[in-house]
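Class prep. Sample record?

___
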Amino acid sequence: MTAIERFDASTGARIYRLPVEAFPGFIVYCYVLLEQGVPTLIDCGSGIGNSGDQLVAGIAALRTEFGEALDIGDIRRVLITHGHIDHFGGLGGVLDLTTAQVGVHPLDRRVLTNYEERVIIATKDLRVYLERAGIPAERRTKLMEMYGFGKKFFRSVAVDFSLEEGIELDGMRFIHTPGHCPGQVCIVIGDVLISADHVLAVTTPHQAPESITAYTGLGHYFEALAKVARLDGIRVALGGHETPIYNLHERIGEIRASHERKLERVETIMRDMGHPCTIGEISRGMYPERHGYDVLLALEEVGAHVEYLYQHGRLMVANLDEVEREDNPALQYALA
């Protein structure tokens, strides 16, 4: 586990980066923000395993290690950067210990307030997607079981205010950056950007197609990257994972280039196959060594790139007769 780090913003705010193990071996960063309005927590881990205890211990360490006069009960506001379980799953536990108000972008609001509904709808949409991707029934069942495993630990909670683009809250600005998640926001605090999972230092953030969830997809993500690239005066970006980013504009260029290579790779695989192929076939060609839950992530990632190519006229559906005749056949794509 990495150590807690402090970052000072040009506004005078103190920002503490707290590591929390959201899933075994997978670290997510939560941020405690002081001297920027009331004591604020940005994201709260998954609530799974030791995640909640680590978050509470991290906040307690701000008193013992950094001399901050703060306990978890002093947190008055929780900002959720986006509706993925590793970032909001611990919210119920935090609210049991505080009287904090909760803010999230409107597009992710129902993920928190109507969680059970969201799981049912998202599960159905994913099942339909896997059918269209050409995944056999037995394999679909196993993937759906893995998808549902971490979804039962959270309970719906109330949301008190919205993190809409254009508003200012105690000097913080919120930038809506969909793509990785519909309601993803980045937070500008002086010369510091909380980039959450929109921009990460090493990993190209995971993409899923808009055919599963609206406001995801590579097109939205590219637009949001361009929006953040127009920011000036950002000294450091702090992501939800990995290391701080001191070269934000360069990193955005690297991420964009990585996705362009993936788009080209999809077309190359299809050309080499020499026949119309499903997302499942393309995914196996692109990520042959993936296993377990990573297979599902690969199918979503490839699906986002296939969807973008199709939307931009670079692919076509080759089995239209079958699509017209059957309820939900696997889509066979060909180069346009």
The CA atoms of residues 125 and 212 lie 5 Å apart. The two ends are 48 Å apart (CA to CA). The chain has a mean pLDDT of 96. Residues 248-273 form the longest helix (26 residues).
